[in-house]
Write a structure and sequence with these properties.
The structure holds two protein chains of two kinds. Chain A is α/β, with parallel strands linked by helices. By secondary structure, chain B is α+β, with helices and mostly antiparallel strands. Chain B is elongated. Classes of the chains: A alpha/beta, B alpha+beta.
Chain lengths: ~750, ~160
Amino acid sequence: MGLGLIASRAIRPVNFFSSSRFLLRTIVSKPELQSSAAAADASPEPDLPPRTPVGGARVHFTNPEDAIEVFVDGYPVKIPKGMTVLQACEVAGVDIPRFCYHSRLSIAGNCRMCLVEVEKSPKPVASCAMPALPGMKIKTDTPVAKKAREGVMEFLLMNHPLDCPICDQGGECDLQDQSMAFGSDRGRFTEMKRSVVDKNLGPLVKTVMTRCIQCTRCVRFASEVAGVQDLGILGRGSGEEIGTYVEKLMTSELSGNVIDICPVGALTSKPFAFKARNWELKGTETIDVTDAVGSNIRIDSRGPEVMRILPRLNEDINEEWISDKTRFCYDGLKRQRLNDPMIRGADGRFKVVSWRDALAIVAEVAHQVKPEEIIGIAGKLSDAESMMALKDFLNRMGSNNVWCEGTGTQPNADLRSGYIMNTSISGLEKADVFLLVGTQPRVEAVMVNARIHKTVRANNAKVGYIGPETDFNYDCQHLGTGPNTLKEIAEGRHPFFSAISNAKNPVIIVGAGVFEREDKDAIFSVVETIAKKGNVVRPDWNGLNVLLLNAAQAAALDLGLVPESSNSIDSAKFVYLMGADEVNLDKLPDDAFIVYQGHHGDRGVYRANVILPASAFSEKEGTYENTEGCAQQTLPAVPTVGDARDDWKTIRALSEVAGMRLPYDTLGGIRSRMRMVAPNLLQVDEREPATFGHSLKPEVTQKLNPARFKSAVENFYMTDAITRASKIMAQCSASLLKK
Amino acid sequence: MAHALQRIWNHGRAMRATVCPLSRPFSSDALVQLQPGEIGKVSGIPEEHLRRRVVIYSPARTATQQGSGKLGKWKINFMSTQKWENPLMGWTSTGDPYANVGDAGFNFDSEVAAKEFAERHGWEYVVKKHNTPLLKVKSYAENFKWKGLPKTDGN
């Protein structure tokens, strides 16, 4: 050992000299940036090609007069006053290496990787924490900056294990990437590397804490975005560890995001562990359907299999986060799938038949019953195309009893403002008072809850909640459990009324669970009274919102999937369930014929007579409208299972077999039919606000029922056919839900 | 050697004499306007692949990484799901010649370039909106700002 040390010390200067050539290399590895930087050095005049901000970022100027000009590598940029040096570099199109800095978290400034040189500053500065000052000359690719970063990198790699080949982050690791640019080709560290005991954070997040570089992004994420104080840092120096203080699971519905923000492989996905490498995966940018938010996701697939789901940036909807349900429901896509058309025989067992036979039987039975005995129910994961086809088909059969589950028996589909989130999800950030009526956003729409949490943190917004006892991850005033409290507020007798009327931008959010109540019209009219008295709806601000539960709801109401009579189930003889699993079929006559068309053998199958397999959201192109009224389209990532077909194609084929041919046979055809009914569904990726307000509503004569509000979601992790089939979600509900 | 060259020369002269009157003089109309879908037809692509529905998009930044090197590219997604696990080896088979083209083969610098390419090949395309981040003012001093009294619920 002693000899070895002496030997290594003797050799070290030699190594240092041999790597000095390495030090002189310019630090930016992109050739185009290098050349432009070289041009900047040659001519100080701003005769430079225009640079675009990193990732096409837009810059938010709160006050256009507060713009200052700084120079990044000689290139002048205009930025708002108060931005950091790192952000200025980003606007100038220069990507600064970083570990602890994350654009959506507070600034920690502890990794020191983002060091840059600033003219007239004696030392390199940590660009993430340094505010940019007017006229500052920032140099990002000088030998000083490079050497500083190399020094930081050497310290980071000192205690970092050399297990990239067995690390799940390998290939998408910031530390790996940046050590390619700033790491030395050999280590000078001869002592032992430290090791840290792994923590158990639950069934979703795998920890290898030895790999941790203490960037504290996960700690900041947990307290700032997820709103749980579970994670923290313990110890100092080389004894510093990230942990949960006591043995505790991370009980947040956003916990999966720490996997993404971890710049190294310390926090990785437990279900995805050792399943695939990221360069083997094919990404498909699509939309999530497990709740009504429509988070933007990327489905990573390998061959015919979905391997994982990652969030995709959308500032208006989910920022950069997704809920655990969205992220980990994918294993449900492989289990309990229906892959062949089946008919229930006389012995009660299902028999596999051909599509031709199955459709012939369905068409025959549909013609045997009276038109008013036919009903169709769309499921919570249905896309707009298939709901359009279902409605058109049943209308041609003479029935108008078509609805979407979860919208109640008498949905109000006339005024669009009565069922969408009028404030828009990003608009919630401007609010200062929230009144949540019968909704628990934490389980119903996690991303909406994250926005509310963000608002509460940022401008101390006040939150009042009416509904059953529940957990909130922000300060919330529990006002009451039933509509009586609502009435008190409407009559101005409740102290919260003054909070609403004094607020600048008050927001009322009514949960879609209210739709299932008998007295929903009365509740909505009381809410509208509060809105009127509290000045919630103004020309410049619409704070009256409905938070929907399911991905299909908004589109279903837009397309007018409203049942003709509210008790049509009692007399139905032919029921077409298009993925509907949560309909109460107890009142259905025993001799009713049930067709279940869907992708999972879930609750709806128990009574079905015929099963028609369909494709899941990851396998089809479909339009979904989210709760704020923004239509988005899914794209197919993987092939369908077995003999399954897209929902609308099955209905189109059935209509032909039944002799009622629907006039469209392409996706373009059905979309142009949708354009006639609801043109906003074709405005993809754009939020279409409601045009008419609540003032057009007729007078309500219903009496308010004092019964308490019920919680709409019993188990956050299992809300639909896909998540109920998922093993990971089952583990989550077993270990994370409070008993 | 010289003999062989002589033979080729003669052959070339004979060819030119026969071909030239028929061939188009390429130099005079170099700027030929391409019809939509013409490139596909000329390059011998089968009929069923000349009319495909494709999606043009710019890949979002990977959530797991902060680097921006792969950003700003435009890609074409062929929505190819015609693939299956081969029962012999468990490898993925595909019935679609474009299955791996979109992901691996195409990289366009701009949306316009991708659109032009799709037009020339006669593909029916949809362009997906590219979501960009919004930079807001952040400051380190925010950490130490007075935010009212601490919460009392012992959380």
